[in-house]
Every structure is written in C-alpha cells, then in structure tokens.
C-alpha cells in the first residue's frame, strides 16, 4: 500500500516537473520573440544611419534614373516617419511636465504613439481639447484621469508648449 502511495506521489512530482519545464520553455520562447523584435528595431536604426551615403551614391551615380530617385525619396519619407515614431530620437527638449505626463503616449516630441500626434496643433486647439477632456465634455478616461489632477495654469503651459512643437521640429531640420 505505502509503495503504491509513494509511486503515485513520484508520478505526480514527475508530471509537475514536466509541466514546470514546459512553462520555462514557453517563457524562453517568449523571451526569444522579444529579442528578435529588438534585433529588428536595431536593424532599422542601422538602415537609417546608412541613408546619407545612400543618398550621395544615388545622386552621384550617373545611371540613377528618375524611377530610382523616386523610390529613394519614398524610402526617405518612410525613414523619416519611422524616426519620428522611434520615441528615443528626441529632436528638441521638452518641459519636465510634458516629459513626465504626456510623452509616454504622445511621444517625446508629440509625434504620437498611443495618443494622437500633437505636432502642428495650435496652442488654442490643444488648450480647448485639454479643457474639454477635463470637464468631461470630450470623453476620454485616460486624458480625463490625467488632467483632473492638473490646474488651469498647467494646462495652459502645456498647450502653449505643444503649440511650439512644429516650429521647434522645423528648426531642427526635420
Ligand atoms: C496614457 C496615454 C496618454 C497620456 C499619458 C496622455 N494622453 Fe493625450 N491622448 C491620449 C489618447 C488615447 C487621446 C485620444 C483621445 C480622443 O481623441 O478621444 C489623447 C488626446 C489628446 C489630445 C487631443 C488631440 C486631438 O487631436 O484632438 C491632446 C491635446 C492631448 N491628448 C494632450 C495630452 C497632454 C498635454 C498630455 C499630458 C498632460 C497627455 N495628452 C497625456 C492618450 C494619452
């Protein structure tokens, strides 16, 4: 009898160990996926860095026809958009308030991530949006929750700052 019980316990332990190993495997796979994703982002950044030489080559190569030039331009545009999206490429400095409270969703320079792009929106427009979110006239839980703890002068300061984003970006040659 006791032998049977021990055998049963041993079997259970073995099954549990197998399950545990399986879970570890799943985790490892997930980790691998993340690494692959990171790898891909790195590659994109590398391509970006190469672009100036590519431009020079395309421009100086005598055989470069219009088609190639057009493709090159398109690539440039895409890369620019990508660069704007890559949150780590900060083109200009922002206030600590914006950085802390807004950049995680709207991007370090307002380029937009989860939240919409703010570059190019006027101070007046932004202030109105913020006031409407805060009052609940414009319904959005995320923005409401954030702004409910801010006072009018902070909203104004943020709106004024965001209104300057486009000019600042242009000044950086983007
Ligand atoms: C957790 C994510 C998140 C954070 C943090 C956040 N926002 Fe938003 N924001 C959003 C989302 C999502 C929307 C879109 C809501 C909608 O249109 O209903 C939005 C909309 C806006 C809009 C309206 C844009 C438009 O095109 O009408 C403005 C302006 C804005 N946010 C400014 C800010 C400011 C300023 C801060 C920092 C105080 C901030 N947001 C922080 C997610 C966020």
What would you say about this model in short?
The chain has 174 residues and is an all-alpha fold. It has two domains: 2-85; 96-171, Cytochrome c-like domain (Cytochrome Bc1 Complex, Chain D, domain 2), CATH 1.10.760.10.
Tally of individual domains: 2
**Low-pLDDT regions:** none
Rg from alpha-carbon coordinates: 26 Å
- The residue fraction in helices comes out at over 70%
- N-to-C CA distance: 80 Å
Helix/strand-derived category reads mainly alpha
Describe this structure in words.
- InterPro entries: Cyt_c-like_dom (IPR009056), Cyt_c-like_dom_sf (IPR036909), Cytochrome_c_Oxidase_Subunit (IPR050597).
- With 174 residues, the chain is mainly α.
- It has 2 domains: 84 residues; 76 residues, Cytochrome Bc1 Complex, Chain D, domain 2, CATH 1.10.760.10.
- Helix content is 74%, strand content 0%.
- It has 8 helices and no strands.
- Helix 1 packs across helix 2 and helix 5 packs antiparallel against helix 7.
- The radius of gyration is 26 Å and the shape is flat.
- The model has no long low-confidence stretch (mean pLDDT 83).
- The site of heme C has 17 residues, from helix 4, helix 5 and helix 6.
Task: Provide the descriptors you would attach to this structure in a database record.
single chain; 174 residues; mainly alpha; Cytochrome Bc1 Complex, Chain D, domain 2; 2 domains; 0% strand; binds heme C
């Amino acid at each position: 009898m006791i032998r049977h019980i021990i055998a049963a316990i041993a079997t259970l332990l073995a099954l549990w160990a197998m399950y545990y190993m399986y879970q570890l495997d799943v985790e490892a796979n997930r980790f691998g996926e993340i690494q692959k994703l990171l790898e891909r982002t790195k590659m994109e950044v590398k391509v970006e860095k190469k672009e100036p030489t590519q431009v020079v080559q395309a421009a100086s190569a005598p055989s470069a026809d219009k088609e190639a030039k057009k493709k090159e331009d398109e690539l440039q545009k895409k890369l620019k958009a990508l660069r704007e999206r890559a949150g780590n490429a900060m083109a200009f400095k922002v206030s600590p308030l914006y950085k802390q409270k807004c950049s995680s969703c709207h991007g370090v320079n307002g380029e937009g991530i989860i939240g919409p792009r703010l570059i190019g929106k006027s101070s007046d427009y932004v202030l109105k949006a913020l006031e409407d979110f805060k009052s609940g006239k414009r319904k959005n839980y995320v923005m409401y929750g954030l702004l409910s703890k801010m006072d009018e002068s902070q909203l104004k300061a943020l709106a004024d700052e965001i209104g300057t984003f486009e000019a600042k970006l242009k000044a950086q040659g983007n």
